[in-house]
Design brief:
The protein is an all-alpha fold. 77% of the residues lie in helices and 0% in strands. The longest helix has 31 residues, at 43-73. It starts with a helix and ends with a helix.
Length: 260
């Protein structure tokens, strides 16, 4: 049963190794609860489960600290007792309501307000996880929290200066802030790192268009279409791919119509 849940947790969170390392025995109940809440789109319940998990961790750590202080005052804290404290903590983690879960889910599967909570809790434990930092940055961007989004992408670039997603994300933020020169610079840097990503060209075209550089915008949009057609020679039935194609075509048509 535990093996089955380990596979589910790995698929669901992408952080199976971290979760099992911290508390393998208590993951099943809360993990199943969180997963069921997400399946049922019970976003508030899923978020509450994670908050309970964090409080459970804090309670366990406080219990350990109080036990150590008590024993230190009595001068009885020896190596065997430290081991006892350690194993008691493991038991406490297992039996506390909610257990411990550090799962994070793809922001595409839930509202941004809930995804924000998920990612912020996770980053308390792995503050330099660039994947989650980028995801949180995009959540902030979609919510219009541009300063917070910029801060997350900047954190990524401190760890990984050539991170494509962070550079592209900063370009989006700068475009939203109407700082188009900086936006163009970030998008160009991102494209240099991944010349085959069609989305990067679309974002660059959007920055050019907002600045009024319409010829450059059309060239970038056409580059996005070229990458799309190369990846999907016969078109794509995937919803997101089809929507992306429509967005690029609409942008090109908009500029060409305004130039007539």
């Amino acid at each position: 049963m535990h093996e089955d849940f380990s596979g589910l947790l790995k698929t669901y969170t992408g952080q199976h190794d971290l979760a099992e390392h911290i508390a393998p025995g208590c993951l099943f109940a809360l993990g199943q609860c969180i997963d069921q809440n997400v399946v049922n789109r019970a976003w508030n319940a899923a978020a509450v489960n994670h908050i309970i998990s964090l409080l459970s961790i804090l309670m366990a750590l406080l219990s350990i600290l109080m036990g150590k202080v008590f024993l230190l005052r009595r001068g009885k804290l020896r190596v065997p007792l430290r081991l006892i404290c350690f194993f008691c903590a493991l038991v406490l983690f297992t039996v506390l309501p909610g257990g411990v879960a550090l799962a994070h889910v793809d922001s595409d599967s839930m509202p941004d307000s809930v995804a924000e909570i998920e990612y912020r809790i996770y980053l308390e434990f792995r503050p330099n996880d660039v994947v989650v930092l980028n995801k949180l940055g995009m959540v902030y961007y979609r919510q219009g929290k541009l300063t917070d989004a910029q801060r997350q992408f900047a954190k990524v670039l401190k760890v990984d200066p050539d991170n494509y997603d962070a550079l592209d994300g900063l370009g989006l933020v700068k475009t939203a802030q109407q700082q188009y020169d900086e936006a163009i610079m970030y998008h160009r840097r991102a494209i240099e790192l991944n010349v085959e990503d069609m989305v990067g060209y679309f974002h660059l075209g959007n920055a050019f268009e907002k600045k009024g550089m319409l010829q450059e915008a059309i060239e970038a949009y056409n580059a996005a279409l070229e990458k799309f057609n190369r990846q999907y020679p016969g078109g794509s039935k995937k919803k997101k791919a089809a929507e992306f194609f429509d967005k690029v075509r609409t942008a090109i048509d908009r500029i060409e119509t305004n130039q007539k």
